[in-house]
Amino acid sequence: MIKRTALILIAGFVCTTPLSAQQNTAYQKPPQSLISLLEAPLSPGVRISSDGEWMLLLEMSGLPTIDELSQPEYRLAGLRIDPLTNGPSRSTFFKGIKIKSLSTGQESVFAGLPTDAKLSDITWSPDETKIAFTHTSQTGIELWVADLKSLAAKRLGMEHINKTYGKIFVWNPDGKTILAQFVDSKRTALTEPKRIPPGPVIQENTGKSTPAPTYQDLLKSPYDEMAFDHFLTSQLKLVNMEGESSNFLQPQIIRSFEYSPDGKYILLSNINHPYSYTVPIGLFPFTTSLYDTKGKLVKKLFDAPLAENIPAGFDGVPKGPREFGWRADKGATLYWVEALDNGNPSQQATIRDIVYTQAAPFNQNALKLAECYFRFYSIVWGDDKLAILTERWWKTRAERRIFIKPGTENFRVNLFDRYYEDTYSDPGVLVTKKNEYKRNVLLTEFNGLKRISDPDNLNIFSISDGSSPEGDRPMILKFNIKTKIRDTIFHSAAPYFERPVFFNNGKFIINSRESAETVKNYFRVNLSDSVYTQITNFSNPYPELNGVQKKQVSYTRLDGINLGGTLYLPAGFKIGDTPLPVLIWAYPREFKTIEAAGQVKGSPHTFSMLSSGSPVYWVTRGYAVLDNADMPVVGESNKEPNDTFIEQIRYNAEAAINYLVKLGVADRKRIAIGGHSYGAFMTANLLAQTDLFAAGIARSGAYNRSLTPFGFQAEERTYWQAPLVYNKMSPFSYADKIKTPLLLIHGQADNNTGTFPMQSERLYTALKGHGAITRLVLLPSESHAYRAKESILHMMWEMDNWLEKYVKNN
């Protein structure tokens, strides 16, 4: 039996001994060049008010310690709960908030903020004179408010927020009160589970087809159900700005709640029994109802049953009404969606979904708003004469954006008919403004004519990434809904990467601006003369990367598809110098068209901000790094991408290697491949099916597809429908072919669907059994993405040692 301490490292090295070697070791640290980059202070997060007057500057917290990450947690119905705070056990916080006036430039701090602050859920009040937020203390989660005029912050009441699931709080549209979930003060203590179980845990299926992905952290016993009720049951309370509160309804498990725009009604969904041991909370039964502000039931809208039998496929949806919401342009009008094809994408149907509306007092028949030929995706409201509805069909990646008139049934004009994987044609996110209800509706402009004489001659606006063969160049577009003529109001240009973050069709915009050498800052830009006024002055967090060369590269694979990535070269390296060891980092993506697969991604003009999992750190260790190397897998027409997954990732890898060698950058014998999650899966497959690499690094992957039998990633078919595909794509099936050194890293508490830690453990065992050079590192308390500082530093140490031994000094 393996003894487990703070970190388990299991290693087998055939180069030193034919026997597997087991090591229990303390956390290690990588070279200082990597530590300095990881510990660099990051620029604050930024939020801008809807009128462009205020900017919130949110100071980031550092990485948590392994002690913080290892505190007890309950894993229930897909959730991970901290029993001490009654909130999520793994959260990211801000440790400070500043407010900056964009008209005067004055920057201020809020008085009264909690010490050792852990702030989150930061939300503007409807009139944007205040912000509400939560602070997580050692004993619970507190509700706070800060006033932009007085610059004072205070806690509202002394009770603790329940943050286990769903929306935490909403502002009343009048801005005077907040409706929030609180821990039920009357709940009794949770008892310890009995040592002797009351009986077996039994599940039964009575002949219904109920395929489900391999979810994790599910309910497993009656005790889990009791704990679920204990932690998730909330008491809704109305809290005023003095901290006085009153109960709203009885304690229950709340899925969602939202005021009507006029503040007269509350749309609320609550979770019901029976619970499930096979799907997470998002698929549990729930009831959606309407209440008035006194808590009186106005109308029960729908009882959604347990959704264990949603039709297979990514376009499958539940039967019955779904996606209830409020029209943003009306005081109190509901909308919802219903499938006409029983939610089954395999069923033939001309119309897939219908969108309905119903106005207060909700006692008339529902009105049909629109028919959807694909699945309903979203809607942006304008008024009775304009709304933009988006529908999508995953199977073909088709998307339509449709001009409808909510006051005129059956009016429908397709504005954009495209494939959403085609980034070059993406019109972007529609620009909105606040209306009289303080809700976001379409920003519009008359096109030189009175709308009363030609109501359709109207312009709308969008902000897009501006993807193009030159890379991303964000832009603001004006679009006429009658003529479909587009005008460009702003377009980012080299050598900068500028992204509009505020636009109201006024005299100025606010952009973030960065370049390959300069960190992102924010600027006010006059549209009349293009004069820039700098708003923030964030400094470069990575002076250690000065001189590092970064560029977008492009190359072509064997079958003609254009590929690319971001290449980093060490400071001082010149073409003609001795070729370098290389680390290629990638993540496969599926496409339905060759054109979309070959499009240029990213921009050469962005500043490189390093995540804790980035491969770019190793440029400081003398490696060339090809990050985000394109790894498309294409299946056109009726073909599925995964039918030729192995062949296509090999084409991609060969093209990248040949390009780097021809460029004079790479030593062909010293190239490593690596990736996280699906990138780890790709890495193991490349080592099993090719001899292109000197070493591989696979983090938190899945390697045996028979353990994810009801689909994975973008694969809709089941194992029984496509067994050859599942087996061929499983590197576990070819463990005897892997002769290249492979480092496996996995979080022991991985909660991602399908990437059980067992996936890495079983592949390691198979590799060891066939005499491979391999090492398995299990990081305690870490889930799919690693968070504790000790874990990340140790991960870097492992990767650095592996690269030094099997790549640089190969």
Q: How do you describe this structure in short?
A:
The chain is mainly beta and 810 residues long.
Polypeptide structure, described:
There is one protein chain. The protein is mainly β and 810 residues long. 12% of the residues lie in helices and 37% in strands. The strands form 11 sheets. The protein has a 10-stranded mixed beta sheet with strand order 2-1-49-48-47-46-42-44-41-40, sandwiched between helices. α5 (645-663) crosses α6.
Would you count the extended β strands for me?
49
The number of distinct helices, counting runs of at least 4 residues, comes to 9
Query: Biggest β-sheet: count, sense, barrel?
Result: 10 strands, mixed
Average predicted confidence as pLDDT: 94
Structural class based on helices, strands and sheet pairing: mainly beta
Oligomer: single chain
Q: How are the strands of the largest sheet arranged?
A: 2-1-49-48-47-46-42-44-41-40
Low-confidence stretches: 1-20
Strand content: 35-45%
* Percentage of residues assigned to helices: 10-25%
Shape: globular
Rounded radius of gyration (Å): 28 Å
- The first-to-last residue Cα distance is 34 Å
